[in-house]
């Protein structure tokens, strides 16, 4: 089994998120680590439940994309010699995967994944709004809120997954 993530937090999940084709995703290997299962278990769940993963829920990486992952992220070094190209789960794909994998660790990881995506959306919205307002007082409020969102995202988790 891949090295499990010991303490889950929004920060630990943010560190695993990557962008592929302009979409924020988690690679199947990282999902397996978060959920405390083997990558093959993740892939088997997808294979056994194709109706839960329509287009846009999973990105099947091509050979060149896999090569780029290996070159840019040390944690994917083991993929270098794999004959299988990894899958990348979008936010929707991760939600669907959570309906299949029922362990307590998978449930705990799903909570943190949901919170992470929510914080990213909230921060993006706040930054966008900040760019659009001209009022100095509103700008200060939005800048303060942005700082709060970032601080919340980076604070350590209070509990370990079961």
Provide keyphrases for this structure:
7 helices; Mlu1-box Binding Protein, DNA-binding Domain; alpha+beta; disordered N terminus; four-stranded antiparallel sheet; disordered C terminus; elongated; single chain; 162 residues
Number of strands: 4
Number of helices: 7
Percent of residues in β-strands:
5-15%
The strand line-up of the biggest sheet is: 1-2-4-3
Span between N and C termini?
17 Å
The secondary-structure class comes to alpha+beta
Give the low-pLDDT segments. Answer: 1-6, 157-162
- Name the overall outline: elongated
Major sheet description? 4 strands, antiparallel
Order of helices and strands: HEEHHEHEHHH
Q: What do we call the CATH topology of the domain at 10-115?
A: Mlu1-box Binding Protein, DNA-binding Domain
CATH C-level class of the domain at 10-115 is: Alpha Beta
Roughly what percent helix?
55-70%
Q: Architecture of the domain at 10-115, according to CATH?
A: Roll
User: Taking all residues together, what is the mean pLDDT?
Assistant: 80
> What is the alpha-carbon Rg in Å?
17 Å
